[in-house]
Structures are given as C-alpha cells and as structure tokens.
Amino acid sequence: MRYPAFLKGNGTIGFVAPSFGCATEPYKSGFLYAQKKWKEQGYQLQLGPNCYVEEGVGISNIPQKCGEELTDYYCDKNNDCLISCGGGELMCEILDYVDFERIGKAAPKWYLGYSDNTNFTFLLTTLCDTASIYGPCASSFAMEPMHPALEDAMLLLQGKKLTMQGYDKWEKESLEEDEEDPCAFYNLTETSVIKYYMPDGRTNVESLRKAGVNEDETEIDFSGRLLGGCMDCLVNLLGTQYDQVTAFTERYKEDGIIWFLEACDLNLMGIRRAMWQMEHAGWFRHCKGFLIGRPRIGMGVEEFGIDEYQAVCEMLYPYHVPVLMDLDIGHLPPSMPLLCGSMARVNSDGQTYRVEMTLQ
Predict the structure, then answer these.
(1) CA torsion angle for 120, 236, 258, 132 (degrees, to 10)?
(2) How do residues 39-78 score in pLDDT, each as one tens digit?
(3) Which end of the chain has fewer beta carbons closer than 10 Å to its terminal beta carbon, N or C?
(4) How far is the CA of 135 from the CAs of 40, 106, 119, 149, in angstroms?
(5) At a CB cut-off of 8 Å and minimum separation 6, what does 263 contact?
(6) Residues in CB range of 241: below 8 A, 6 or more apart
(7) pTM for this structure?
C-alpha cells in the first residue's frame, strides 16, 4: 500500500471538482470562507478550473473535463494534497477520462472527499494501491466553530492524529434556517448509541436480541485493512471494468478487510439489495469486520417488517465477524475521517468505539 506524505504547515492544498463544484450557495460562500481560514493558517492554495463551474449534469463540468482535471491535479507536483469541492450524483461518468495508469505511477498524495467521491477514494485504493481519506469536502471547513470531526480530518491530513473515536451527538435533521449559512454548526439533537452484532450471537439490537445475553461483558476488538465508502457508488462500480475488488482482497487476504459502509439515497430495501449484490460478487471474502454508518434514509423506520439493522446484519451472519452499526460515518453528521487502505484496529466496549489506523 502506498501512503502519501502528510500535509506540512506551509504546504499547498489543491482543490478539484470531479463531482459538484462550489458554484451555488451556501457552498460558494463556504468554500471562500474556508479558503480564508486555510490561508490564515499559512497554507498555499491551488484551485482547479472546475471549482466554481456549473456546466455538467450531476457534476461540475462535462465528464471529460472533470476527469482531466482530476488526473492533472493529482499528478501536479505543485500541490501536496487534494480536497474535493463536494459530492454530487454522476462522478462515475468521469472515470473513462481519469488516467489511473498515470495516477498509479505518480507520487502518491492524499485525496480527501466522501459520498460521490467514493468513485475515486475507493478506486485509488483498489486500482492504484494508494491510501485515500474518506472525509469531509472543502466547503464544510467553513464551520464556526469547527466540529471535532472536521478538526480530526485536518489533523489526519497533517498526520497528527491517526486514531479516531466516536462523537457524543449526531444530527438527524439540519435546521432550515441554517441551510443558507455556510458557517452553521451541526444541529446535534441525537445521542450516539452503538448497535452491534458479534460472531457468538451477542447483540444489543433490540429487534434481534437473543435471550440470556449479558451485554455488560461486551468486548469488541478486531483488525484488518480498511476499505469502503458510499454503497450507492460501490454497487454502481460492481461488475464494471473498474471493479478489481477480488484481486485487491486476495492481495491483502493475510491482513483481512474491515469494510466501512454507509448509504445516501438507498432506502432499506436498496441497502439490503446492495448488501446482497456485494456479498454475491465475493467482495466480502477475507472480511474481519464491518463498520456501518447511519443511513441517511431509513433511520428508525421499518420497510416490510425490517429495520436498518436487519437490512445489513442478516446478510452478514454467515461471516461470523463483528458488525458495528450506527457509527459516525457518512451523510448524517458528524462523520469521522477514515484512511481507506490503511491497517486498522477497532476497539469497543459496546458503548464507545475507536479506530486506530496505521500506515503498513
């Protein structure tokens, strides 16, 4: 696995828009304010040509220009890392114009983004054996005061913090009056509660509870190589020429794989179908455990008699590995940044959890 150099204090941050750019509010103002903060911290900035463009369908520009920007700026020696301007809808369409061979031969650099950016964070790891960061996009860093999750992302980018812990509260719904405020803090109304399924059948998921379980004796500890992202994007890649997951998992089978997964637009049935598809494609071979983020759609509801836990868990029982759910990963903030491709040790007492990442 190739690991890039971490961002230095006087380094140059590059920005690209392979998905949506920052052409509309509040993202444009947020991006401008975040740039001001980075400059005050001593960083140099390099903006790609699509950062403020709104000429594409579900992405900033036409696929060819987005793919060329991503390739050129990743291979450009004048920036030290790349942060994506935003998520979006159709980043998959740029992949035919991304030169992965050229990127794989270039000096590795950190790429930070999430959601639709799975199309690059995941492929950078599986196609180019290069670690990436699944975390917040550029305009999010305008937040005042910054939530610890955003601080963690910058500390990870700088190499100053490689162990992440879950946060106390999470946002179920953003405040309507804050949607136009680029610096708005999260509306943290919900208390974080871990749900888990253990190989021996122990669980704290009410709908799957087994009689006689003593939850006070829970100790969760497992290790493996982190891999994953947004399921909406992952299943779209599955079976295409960009799907080299089987080769990747075989290459790292001695380490084993810890899958981190979250969903954006998939409802519970969509999540269950996605899990079925990945499982039947053989993606989960050599898995050591699963880290599941809160789904943006389907939290606290049921469809056809199943909830968000059964949508995921029942497909994973045969693997007899730990499954941690409702974690701070994905579209319901805050979201902890994760190094896709890194080795990780996950530890939990059933109430809190931590992910310790190492560059090996």
Answers:
(1) 0
(2) 999 999 999 999 999 999 999 999 999 999 999 999 999 9
(3) C
(4) 22, 23, 13, 9
(5) 230, 231, 232, 270, 271, 274, 293, 295, 296, 297, 298, 330, 331
(6) none
(7) 0.94
Element (H, E) at 12: strand 12-16
Determine the Cα–Cα distance for residues 41 and 30; give it in Å rounded to an integer.
17
Q: How many CB atoms lie within 10 A of CB 149?
A: 21
Q: What is the mean pLDDT of the chain?
A: 92
158-189: string of b/e by CB count within 10 Å (b at 16+)?
eeeebebebbeebbeeeeeeeeebbebebbbe
Q: How far apart are CA 111 and CA 83, in angstroms?
A: 6
Nearest to 110 by CA among 127, 134, 88, 140: 134
Rounded CA-CA distance 175/190 in Å is 14
The two tokens of residue 235 are: 């299943």
Residue 19 burial (CB count, 10 A): 30
Q: Are 44 and 81 in contact (CB under 8 A)?
A: no
Amino acid at 70: L
Q: How far apart are CA 55 and CA 64, in angstroms?
A: 12
Per the listing, tokens 């179920």 go with 172
